What does this fold into?
Amino acid sequence: GTRRTDAGTVRLTQRDITGLLLCAEHYAAPYDLLASALGVQPARMRAITARWRAAGLASTGTLGPSPAWCWLTPSGLAACGRNYPARPPSLSRLAHIRAVLAARLWLEAGDAYHAGRAWWHSERRIRAALPTNAGTAHVADAEIHWPSTDASPYAGQAWAIEAELTPKTAARTARIMTGLLSGPYAQVIYLCSPPARPVVTRAAAQLPDKDRHRIAVRDLPPSAYLPGIPPQ
It folds into this structure.
């Protein structure tokens, strides 16, 4: 038989592209959430990420409590058209990165999201677009953008998404809310752990009447927490 001209190279499927882009936009991804996003059994992720490693696109490792994580190499980020720094996520950020990705998958599974053809704008992309003199203002964990289509229940809106795992002071939380509400967001959605929700609720109650209705407070989905470790 004739040998393929691309023999020995990794052929990327649409599933591979989806997974690589997800890892790029979220700094890294734990195997269980990555498997859920790609619609495969968790046991399949080792084989899939092994193909990515063989192509030089990704690195993997156990960064904390199971499961393993995957993040992109410089070649992987370049293949995705992203110029983000290529490095594993810091240990202090793992829980937050997981919570934001879990929130994304949960929100994207909703009927309104599909009907409105909404799309996710990651914190990493938001930060990459900021000017170098942007200062230290709080940046949303993500944005949801709703296209201006007749089918969209929130046509033309942008929402800020905040994943709140650890409670801050109510005063600081209210300042963050006020800053986000001064931006282009029609709503700010807070997805909270049980310890963080009371503080977020109190902070929202401190806002003026004209702003209070633009804050929505919900629970984080169960997948936001490490498997076998319930929220505290």
Q: What stands out?
A: Confidence is low (pLDDT under 50) at residues 3-8. Strands lie at 29-30, 58-61, 69-72, 119-122, 142-145, 158-164, 187-192, 215-219.
